[in-house]
């Protein structure tokens, strides 16, 4: 299997598994217990908190461990909405956000909040003036993702955060596709809340984190979603997932050490892949190619059905980014927001590379995809 679906999830790095193993076997104590056994688990959690905070440029105590990005997003948006409701009930986000953000916003609309879903330009970038015009005195939160999971488009969050703060609102970013892969500094970027997930950067599934600003210039307050034993400073009760947290921390540390090298190596592979795929007639890239994450390319193959391509690319894992539910296959809301029609949106594939890909994978995929695209088009013509 050649795996080019790293934006969906990444392989657990064997070094991360090794770090987790003691905590899945003999070091099973509860991190809240005060006996020496528990203290060792507590120390391991403390180290992991430091490792993740170093990756984000925050203080360790500004992090809340969650079950992943979806939970972190729910806690951030609902937690802010409830806490700041007396100041206002208006939230701004973008049409191309992950469904975790969009669905929380839709839920809040049923609870009396008003949400503005900003459009994007055909290249996937937010138009800053539309944001400026949408900010209101009762806006409490602006949530804009850093890297889009389908196209890799990078939003100018530093600029967005500055405008948000000038209007007196909080700025949140879903950085699930960016953490561990590009430098992030919550201070210089002006981030108040940030979400991430371990399985997107070679850590385990079922663990993630929420950063909540506690330092100047503003201390963010949150209402908890989960009540109970008061873990994570009362923000997220429930016995800590020590092996998961250790894995998250170790994965963060490995990413921090190899970030520069991986960016240039994986970026070169993506460029090679993209050039090869664009040599196939009737193809083009979706999304701004300059402001784009180095591991992703989303390509339109005119006249080819993406599901047929996924099935036809035997031994290769890629994605079409469409939301698949039991009842329906919807076209990608991200591509529709960028102005593609339904037929075009159903003709796109996302290739997302990662740490374990090689040039051989890339060459194989270019070759298989060009043969398949020609076959599918001939099939339609005949
Ligand atoms: C941008 C983005 N946000 C949020 C999520 C949800 O992450 P998790 O699976 O950890 O809940 C994903 C994962 O698909 C994502 O790509």
From TrEMBL:
Top-rank taxon: Bacteria
A GO MF label: metal ion binding
Gene3D superfamilies: Aspartate Aminotransferase, domain 1, Type I PLP-dependent aspartate aminotransferase-like (Major domain)
EC number(s) given by UniProt: 2.8.1.7
Domain Aminotransferase class V per the UniProt entry, residue ranges: 2-364
Family matches, as InterPro entries: Aminotrans_V_dom (IPR000192), Aminotrans_V_PyrdxlP_BS (IPR020578), Cysteine_dSase (IPR016454), PyrdxlP-dep_Trfase (IPR015424), PyrdxlP-dep_Trfase_major (IPR015421), PyrdxlP-dep_Trfase_small (IPR015422)
Alphabetized UniProt keyword annotations: 2Fe-2S, Iron, Iron-sulfur, Metal-binding, Pyridoxal phosphate, Transferase
Needed cofactors: pyridoxal 5'-phosphate
UniProt family annotation: Belongs to the class-V pyridoxal-phosphate-dependent aminotransferase family. NifS/IscS subfamily.
Stated name of the protein: cysteine desulfurase
Species whose genome carries this gene: Hymenobacter fodinae
């Amino acid at each position: 299997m050649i795996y080019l679906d790293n934006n969906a999830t990444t392989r657990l790095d064997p070094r991360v598994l090794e770090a987790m193993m003691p905590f899945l076997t003999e070091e099973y104590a509860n991190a809240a217990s005060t006996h020496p056994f528990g203290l060792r688990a507590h120390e391991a959690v403390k180290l992991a908190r430091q490792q993740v905070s170093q990756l984000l440029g925050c203080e360790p105590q500004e992090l809340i461990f969650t079950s992943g990005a979806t939970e972190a997003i729910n806690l951030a948006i609902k937690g802010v909405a409830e806490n700041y409701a007396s100041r206002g009930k208006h939230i701004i986000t973008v049409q191309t956000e992950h469904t975790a953000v969009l669905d929380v916003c839709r839920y809040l609309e049923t609870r009396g909040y008003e949400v503005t879903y900003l459009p994007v330009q055909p290249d996937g970038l937010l138009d800053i003036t539309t944001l400026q015009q949408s900010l209101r005195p009762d806006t409490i939160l602006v949530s804009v993702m850093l890297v889009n999971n389908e196209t890799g488009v990078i939003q100018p969050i530093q600029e967005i955060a500055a405008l948000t703060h000038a209007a007196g609102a909080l700025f949140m970013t879903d950085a699930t596709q960016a953490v561990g892969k590009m430098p992030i500094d919550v201070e210089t970027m002006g981030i108040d809340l940030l979400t991430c997930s371990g399985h997107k950067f070679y850590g385990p599934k079922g663990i993630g984190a929420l950063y909540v600003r506690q330092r100047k210039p503003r201390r963010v307050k949150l209402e908890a979603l989960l009540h109970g034993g008061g873990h994570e400073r009362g923000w997220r009760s429930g016995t800590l997932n020590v092996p998961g947290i250790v894995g998250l921390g170790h994965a963060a540390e490995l990413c921090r050490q190899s970030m520069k090298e991986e960016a240039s190596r994986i970026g070169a592979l993506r460029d090679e892949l993209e050039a090869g795929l664009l040599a196939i007639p009737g193809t083009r890239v979706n999304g701004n190619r300059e402001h784009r994450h180095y591991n992703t390319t989303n390509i339109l193959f005119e006249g080819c059905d993406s599901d047929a391509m996924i099935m036809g690319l035997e031994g290769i894992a890629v994605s079409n980014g469409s939301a698949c539910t039991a009842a329906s296959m919807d076209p990608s809301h991200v591509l529709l927001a960028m102005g593609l029609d339904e037929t075009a949106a159903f003709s796109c594939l996302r290739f997302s590379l990662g740490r374990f890909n090689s040039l051989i994978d890339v060459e194989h995929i270019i070759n298989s995809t060009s043969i398949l695209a020609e076959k599918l088009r001939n099939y339609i013509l005949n």
